[in-house]
Design the sequence.
């Protein structure tokens, strides 16, 4: 499920990891990197303790190298005044998360001229050494003990160095190479290649790279062939001990790679050509000819992907685009990686994760962080930062992948619509889609057994469930909205709207249920901070429902329905609902379970929609309470609805007021592949509880 790191290429020199992983700028830095105060104050969680003179403890400033000393960035430790040297040293190493043997380190007092030891060392405290007599006290025991100390690594005449392959090699994380004063970058490469299975290739086509993996940025340095490795390690430790723990050495193929950065730019006008988008961006941000080209166009989204052949130009464009608006719309810029699909293992099927951080009472943001840690961060996308298209673009050449959508039914519909539009550009045109339900209703998640809503399960167990899930098919439907002038003036609706197409997965409601959804949507738009839990959201639904309980508009008089080009007479109803799945309104069975010879048993992959009527808010409440079902009206694959007046409409929970005109509902292309969570084995013999799973297609040979 993990996108192998060796199959991801992101050429960047000036972009931080927050940019590369599309992490919000407000995200907190990792603990232990960059969190020291610029003025030398202690980092968060390691604050200095103000102690009275008679206190049994004292605080010491600890620097981990020359770089920290120059920037006055230190950590503070509190140690007993009678602490032994080794205890102080171990406390200092813990402050910098250095887990190596304390015998390989020493503490030096600052300034060095304060103390001169009889052994010739200056103010040193070392573990296992003889700078002090056995049993003597540490720096805290001296009357004029210095306040600041610096950690130093003792010099080595030889050591073992871990060398990592810069390519995917299953079963081998690294090899250990014995480094002596004679060892150079070239000799290390020569020794490592046979151990990594590349001895048949010429060593001249490989190089040794030093990679510093800080919390904000990854820095690569190609070492010269004659670079002495032991001296290099000593210099790194002198600069920063913690930097040494964040540094790895890789054997990599020495291919010259031209600078190339992919920038995804959204917020542009819709429906333009590549040349028109190029001219528009040149006018807005002054792109440099010869360095910037438009490689992909998503005109329906008003988005393009730019190929930038210069690191400095890519950084300039990224910063400038984010502060630019075109035709009143602010632009969005994302740095995208390249997935080297030819290097993917044959059995690789990575998971493309989309998370809506605004869903689920803000649980989405926690899941975003968790999945970025459990998986490759480059396969986890935040939907509020560019939508689904950047993720599908990055995975466009991956031959086999699956999708996990973390959000409500509206979010799932958004991703499925993007998948439908991107299908012809994907090497895997029919990826299976799993759901982690974070919304209020979560009807599709219920049908596919993912539950009524996420309640804090371990994200790792969620990934295991996705890996074990079964693939099922589901119909998708196209709704053509064609508004006419007739009745527009009468109902104070804007002039003729251009025809548009929306996609439907779950249901489409016309009338009272859409009106309730619209009222809820408007309330959430006015005060989004209050809508942070499903319990509160459902309470608002109840409140707006009670306000409409006596509402009556006679919907059957305001619309006309044709099924398979045959006129259907409507009963007295206030709401007309087209359902594709056996769950509506947070799990209610609107169609009902009674057999009816007039209709086939509903299934989500049968190419048919069921049409149901409700008489009002009271009827809807009885359906959701399991006391009644809806009024069965029709079943078919092609529908034409004529709206005589402006009427509330909702599709998969997304409501609006539709102008008078026609609505044509028909099947949309191929069925989509969904992932259904496998049934958990019942604890005891008997019939396990199963919530309306009859509407889900069962693969051949599987039992219900």
Sequence:
């Amino acid at each position: 499920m993990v996108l192998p790191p060796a199959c991801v290429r992101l050429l960047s020199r000036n972009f931080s990891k927050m940019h590369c992983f599309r992490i919000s700028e407000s995200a907190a830095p990792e603990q232990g990197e960059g969190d020291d105060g610029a003025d030398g104050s202690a980092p968060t969680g390691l604050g200095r303790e103000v102690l009275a003179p008679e206190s049994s403890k004292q605080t010491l400033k600890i620097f981990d190298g020359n770089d920290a000393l120059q920037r006055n960035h230190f950590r503070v430790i509190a140690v007993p005044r009678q602490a032994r040297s080794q205890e102080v040293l171990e406390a200092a190493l813990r402050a910098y998360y250095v887990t190596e043997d304390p015998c390989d380190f020493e503490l030096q007092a600052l300034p060095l001229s304060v103390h001169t030891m009889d052994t010739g060392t200056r103010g040193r405290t070392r573990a296992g050494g003889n700078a002090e007599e056995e049993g003597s006290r540490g720096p805290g025991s001296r009357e004029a003990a210095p306040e600041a100390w610096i950690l130093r690594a003792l010099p080595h005449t030889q050591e073992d160095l871990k060398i990592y392959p810069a390519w995917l090699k299953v079963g081998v994380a690294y090899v250990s190479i014995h480094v002596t004063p004679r060892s150079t970058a070239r000799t290390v490469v020569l020794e490592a290649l046979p151990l990594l299975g590349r001895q048949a290739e010429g060593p001249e086509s490989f190089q040794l790279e030093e990679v510093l993996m800080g919390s904000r940025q990854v820095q690569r340095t190609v070492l010269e062939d004659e670079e002495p490795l032991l001296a290099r390690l000593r210099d790194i430790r002198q600069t920063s001990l913690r930097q040494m723990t964040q540094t790895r050495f890789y054997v990599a193929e020495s291919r010259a790679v031209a600078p190339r950065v992919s920038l995804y730019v959204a917020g542009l006008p819709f429906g333009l050509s590549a040349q028109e988008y190029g001219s528009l961006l040149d006018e807005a941000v002054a792109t440099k000819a010869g360095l910037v080209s438009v490689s992909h166009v998503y005109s329906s989204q008003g988005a393009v992907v730019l190929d930038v052949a210069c690191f400095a130009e890519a950084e300039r464009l990224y910063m400038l685009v984010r502060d630019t608006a075109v035709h009143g719309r602010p632009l969005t810029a994302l740095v995208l990686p390249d997935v080297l699909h030819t290097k993917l293992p044959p059995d690789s099927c990575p998971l493309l994760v989309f998370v809506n951080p605004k869903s689920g009472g803000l649980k989405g943001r926690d899941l975003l962080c968790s999945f970025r840690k459990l998986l490759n961060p480059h396969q986890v996308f935040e939907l509020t930062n560019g939508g689904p298209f950047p993720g599908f673009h990055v995975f466009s050449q991956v031959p086999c992948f699956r999708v996990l959508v973390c959000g409500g039914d509206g979010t799932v519909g958004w991703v499925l619509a993007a998948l439908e539009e991107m299908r012809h550009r994907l090497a895997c045109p029919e990826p299976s889609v799993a759901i982690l339900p974070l919304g209020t209703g979560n009807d599709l998640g219920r049908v596919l057994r993912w539950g009524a809503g996420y309640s804090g399960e371990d994200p790792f167990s969620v990934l295991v469930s996705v890996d074990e899930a079964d693939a099922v098919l589901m119909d998708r439907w196209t709704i053509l909205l064609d508004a006419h002038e007739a009745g527009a003036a009468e109902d104070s609706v804007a002039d003729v709207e251009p025809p548009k197409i929306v996609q439907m997965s779950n249901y489409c409601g016309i009338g009272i249920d859409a009106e309730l959804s619209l009222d809820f949507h408007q309330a959430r738009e006015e005060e989004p901070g209050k809508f942070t839990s499903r319990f509160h959201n459902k309470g608002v639904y109840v409140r707006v429902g009670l306000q409409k309980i006596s509402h009556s508009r006679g919907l059957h008089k305001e619309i006309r329905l044709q099924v398979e080009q045959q006129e259907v007479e409507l009963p007295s109803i206030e709401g007309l609902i087209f359902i594709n799945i056996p769950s509506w309104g947070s799990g209610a069975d609107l169609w009902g379970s009674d057999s009816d010879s007039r209709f086939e048993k509903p299934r989500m992959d049968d190419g048919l929609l069921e049409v149901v009527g409700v008489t009002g808010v009271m009827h809807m409440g009885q359906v959701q309470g399991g006391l009644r079902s809806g009024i069965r009206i029709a079943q078919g694959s092609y529908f034409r609805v004529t709206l005589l007046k402006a009427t509330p409409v909702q599709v998969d929970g997304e409501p609006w007021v539709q102008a008078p005109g026609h609505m044509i509902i028909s099947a949309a292309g191929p069925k989509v592949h969904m992932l259904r969570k496998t049934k958990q084995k019942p604890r005891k013999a008997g019939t396990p509880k199963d919530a309306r799973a009859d509407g889900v297609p069962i693969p051949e040979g599987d039992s219900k």
In short: The longest strand covers residues 206-213. The CA atoms of residues 357 and 363 lie 7 Å apart. Residues 512-526 form the longest helix (15 residues). The chain is about 20% helix and 25% strand.
